[in-house]
Structure formats: C-alpha cells, structure tokens
Specification:
The protein is α/β, with parallel strands linked by helices. It contains eight helices and 15 strands. Strands 2-3-1-4-11-5 form a six-stranded mixed sheet. A five-stranded mixed sheet has the order 8-7-9-6-10. The chain starts with a strand and ends in a 6-residue tail after the last strand. The protein binds adenosine-5'-triphosphate and magnesium ion (MG).
C-alpha cells in the first residue's frame, strides 16, 4: 500500500498553519514535530519536517511527493515541480527597501547600488526586466540589518506589516512579488499516489471553502426577500422558512468572509433583523 510523503516546514512561520490545515483535513498524527518524520494514523500519508529552502528540491527528487511552502520560495528555487493549490495563509510580499531618508523616484535608484537578499534569482530577474545594473549580495538571514552594518545600500526581503523594516530605518519602495503558502507536487507521481493526493486536495478545498465563507441567518419581512436574495446569492439560492409571525421569514445562506461587512450593511438597509453569522466547519461545493 503506497503512502503520500508530505514535506512541511519543521519550525518557522509556516509550520503551525501547515499542521493545522492537515489536522482540519481529519489527518491525525501520533508524534510531535520534534521528530524528522511521522505517519498519520488514519490516512495514507507520511509527514517530513524540513527547512522550507530544501522542500522544492526534495519534491523535485521525490524524497517527498508534495510540499507546503511559500510561493516566494518555490519561484526562487525554480525546481521542476507543479504548483497544485494556493492555501490562503502566510500572505506576504517580496519587496525592495532603502534607507528611509533616501529619495526614491523609480527602480533606476538601484543602478550601481549593493542590494542584500536571500532571493538572488527573483531579484536579478527584476533588475534584468528593468534594465538595472546593481550588485546582489546574497545572505541567508537577517537581511534587514545589512544596510546598518555597511554590507549593502538596500535590501530585498519578505515583508508583511513592514514593522521590521521600520525598526531598521528602512522604507519599502517596490514590490517584486506577492506570495502565500502553496502546495507543490512532484510531476511524475504514480497513479496510486495521485489518487491519495486527489483525496487530500478534495479535503483541503473543503477546509479552504469553509474558512472563506460564513453561514448567515436572518429574519426579514416577506416584502424584502427579493432584495435580500439579490444581496446574498448563497451557494445555490438561499433557504427561506416562514416564521410564526405572519408576513415574516427566516433566511439562511452563505456569505464570503471578505464581503461580509459590506453585505451586512446592505442587508440591514434592506430590512433584515436578528442577523446571526456562524463559522462553517467544512464546505463541499
Ligand atoms: P527555515 O528554517 O525553514 O529555512 P526561514 O527562517 O527561512 O525557515 P520563515 O521566516 O519561517 O523561514 O518563513 C517561511 C515562509 O513564511 C517565507 O518563505 C514566506 O513565504 C512566509 N513568511 C515569511 N515572513 C512572513 C511574514 N512576516 N508574514 C507572513 N508570511 C511570512
Ligand atoms: Mg528558509
């Protein structure tokens, strides 16, 4: 019986969310993450705990069959792997930042500058595209301190809130790439492994769907129902049940997490009352 080998980050910004995703897919592990690998008790997968930098190569060589990591790292390593699914967590961007007191008018700024980064491939691609001749200083961590210690004039690094840059007296000027966690896969999986992967992706999509949506219940006068259905199209169409009070109904539907506040305002002005919003555990379309 074959197993699907899944590589995830051993410890770092992706670890907790990667494990949680697998757990929400109903996959149970016996060991903690202090080991190198562990088997699931109830699904044919084995989890390997690795540094994120190594995952693309291991998936290419089929040491692991699939892996969970940032798209930034996948594109930087440029290995022969397929991106199978976006996962919606670890959202960040790869940006160029300069000393905050410097003037910036455009990418030409970087001509003849030294730029420190852990992403030499993506950065040199950006410079080539913009016709810029700059020196790239490759370092593996704490890139943001490079200008302060005189190693470089600027940095190209992963940013989410920008607070690390600010603490180091730097200012973000251009974004090269936006990224989030993805699943990558080896391109030559056996039929048996593909079948396990399909089962896993089905579950992952159900978890993602649930995270991106909320269940909504509300009461409204019958005369408002048409307008409310227009605001809340739901999965197919909303469920409408009569209330004990004549002329009123209860309406159940699904609303996208990111549209939620905007829709609530519209619903209230359309006459909705007693609005309840409930998290969804799993959503299968
Ligand atoms: P490893 O020891 O495994 O090599 P690392 O130190 O290189 O770990 P982390 O800092 O844990 O890596 O980041 C892993 C990934 O998480 C990054 O490649 C990126 O996709 C994402 N990431 C990094 N920083 C942030 C952030 N501030 N917010 C959101 N996502 C981030
Ligand atoms: Mg790393």
């Amino acid at each position: 019986m074959s197993e699907l080998k899944i590589a995830i980050q051993k410890s770092g910004r992706l670890s907790e969310n990667s494990l949680r995703l697998l757990e929400e897919c109903g996959i149970k592990f016996s060991n903690g993450t202090s080991v190198l690998k562990t088997r699931a008790a109830n699904f044919p997968v084995e989890i390997l705990f690795l540094r994120d930098d190594d995952i693309p190569q291991y998936v290419e060589q089929q040491v692991a069959d699939i892996g969970i990591l940032g798209e930034n790292m996948v594109l930087e390593k440029n290995k022969e792997v397929a991106i199978l699914e976006q996962l919606g967590f670890a959202q960040c961007r790869l940006s160029l930042a300069i000393r905050k007191e410097e003037n910036y008018r455009g990418p030409e700024y970087f001509n003849n500058k030294r730029v420190a980064t852990s992403y030499p491939r993506l950065l040199s691609g950006f410079f080539k595209k913009n016709n810029i001749k700059a020196e790239i200083e490759e370092i593996s961590g704490s890139v943001e301190i490079a200008p302060g210690i005189g190693l470089a004039d600027a940095v190209c690094d992963i940013v989410s809130s920008g607070s690390t840059l600010m603490t180091n007296g730097l200012r973000e000027v251009t974004t090269i790439l936006r990224s989030e966690a993805v699943i990558i896969g080896n391109k030559k999986l056996s039929e048996e492994k593909k079948e396990i992967l399909d089962r896993l992706l089905f579950r992952i999509r159900a978890v993602k769907g649930a995270r991106e949506n909320k269940y909504i219940l509300l009461n409204a006068p019958e005369s408002s129902i048409q307008e409310i259905c227009r605001i809340l199209p739901g999965m197919k169409s909303p469920t409408i049940l009569p209330l004990a009070e004549k002329g009123w109904c209860s309406l159940h539907s699904v609303v996208k997490e990111d549209e939620f506040w905007e829709r609530i305002a519209q619903l209230k002005s359309a006459g909705a009352e007693g609005i309840l919003v409930i998290p969804i555990e799993k959503m299968i379309k």
